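Need residues for this backbone.
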C-alpha cells in the first residue's frame, strides 16, 4: 500500500507544472516590490525559512524516530525484501523506458503476491 501511495503521490506531483519566474503556485503574477505583511513581522531567520535550534533538534529527533520505525517495520515484514528484489530484477531484465509507470504497474498488479512467491522460489531453487 505505501509503495503505491508514494508512487501515486510522486506521479501527481510530477504532473504539476513548475511555476515560471514571476508566478506563484496559483499562477497569479507577483507584484514587484510587494512583500506580505507576515514577512514584515517575522524575525529575519523565520522570514528566510531558517529553523531555530529547538526546531532543528525536534526535526532531527523526528527523523531518527521515523528511521527507527521504518527499520522495525522492515524487520517485521521480511516479504518486502523479496518483493523489492523481484522488482529490481524485473527492472534490470526489462529495462523499462518509464520506470515510474513500470513501478506503478508492478506494485498495483493483482497477482503481485503470487509473482513474488514464484520468482523468489525460482531464485532460491526451492
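Answer:
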Amino acid at each position: 500500500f505505501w509503495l503505491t501511495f508514494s508512487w501515486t503521490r510522486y506521479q501527481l506531483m510530477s504532473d504539476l507544472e513548475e511555476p515560471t519566474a514571476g508566478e506563484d503556485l496559483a499562477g497569479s503574477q507577483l507584484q514587484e516590490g510587494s512583500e506580505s505583511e507576515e514577512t514584515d513581522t517575522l524575525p529575519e531567520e523565520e522570514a528566510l525559512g531558517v529553523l531555530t535550534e529547538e526546531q532543528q533538534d525536534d526535526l532531527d529527533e523526528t527523523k531518527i524516530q521515523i528511521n527507527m520505525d521504518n527499520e522495525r517495520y522492515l524487520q517485521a515484514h521480511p516479504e518486502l525484501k523479496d518483493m523489492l528484489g523481484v522488482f529490481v530484477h524485473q527492472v534490470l531484465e526489462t529495462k523499462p523506458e518509464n520506470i515510474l509507470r513500470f513501478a506503478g504497474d508492478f506494485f498495483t498488479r493483482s497477482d503481485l503476491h503470487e509473482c513474488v512467491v514464484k520468482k523468489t522460489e525460482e531464485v532460491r531453487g526451492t
